[in-house]
């Protein structure tokens, strides 16, 4: 049974993807209390921390033209269309990040290939959530850690 191309494309989800759920699982252990897909922010970030002014985007390597092996591989069929499509996605991503920056928000982009290194991903998320180097105490702990 062969699939029509548009049926395949319709099956590609834009919300609650497996990479996005994996990032949220890590975030729940570090800093719960985020909001999903805030429509009032440019690009509707996958995860947003309002008080921290941090927007997190989880991008598929292919769709956003990441430099890894999966993102650099171009389809052989209809290559011109895909080159233009990915270029438009990258340009839109740049505009979104610039708009967030203009609003005073920090943005973090996590590509799906980064999920392979869970320890590295967790460290990167912690650094984004606590840029000043201070870690907040876990729920139920008596005191927060002193600043470094």
Question: What's the SSE blueprint?
Answer:
Layout: H1 5-10, H2 18-30, E1 35-36, E2 47-49, E3 54-59, H3 69-72, H4 79-102, E4 106-111, H5 118-129
Parallel strand pairs: 3-4
Antiparallel strand pairs: 1-2, 2-3
Helix pairs in contact: 2-5
Give a quick rundown of the structure.
By secondary structure, the chain is an alpha+beta fold. The chain has helices at residues 5-10, 18-30, 69-72, 79-102, 118-129; strands spanning 35-36, 47-49, 54-59, 106-111. It has a 4-stranded mixed β-sheet, sandwiched between helices.
Question: What is the CATH top level name?
Answer: Alpha Beta
Low-confidence stretches: 136-148
Radius of gyration: 18 Å
User: What percentage of amino acids are in beta strands?
Assistant: 5-15%
Largest sheet: 4 strands, mixed
The SSE string, one letter per element, is: HHEEEHHEH
* CATH homologous superfamily designation: VSR Endonuclease
CATH-derived architecture: 3-Layer(aba) Sandwich
CATH topology: Endonuclease, Chain A
């Amino acid at each position: 049974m062969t699939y029509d191309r548009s049926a395949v494309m319709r099956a590609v989800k834009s919300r609650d993807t497996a990479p996005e759920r994996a990032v949220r699982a890590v975030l729940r252990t570090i800093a719960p209390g985020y909001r999903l897909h805030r429509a009032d922010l440019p690009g509707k970030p996958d995860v947003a921390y309002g008080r921290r002014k941090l927007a997190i985007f989880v991008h598929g390597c292919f769709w956003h033209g990441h430099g890894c092996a999966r993102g650099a591989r171009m389809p052989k069929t209809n290559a011109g269309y895909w080159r233009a499509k990915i270029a438009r996605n990258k340009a839109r991503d740049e505009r979104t990040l610039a708009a967030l920056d203009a609003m005073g928000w920090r943005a973090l982009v996590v590509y799906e290939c980064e999920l392979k290194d869970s320890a590295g991903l967790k460290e990167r998320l912690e650094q984004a959530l606590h840029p000043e180097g201070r870690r907040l105490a876990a729920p139920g702990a008596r005191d927060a850690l002193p600043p470094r």
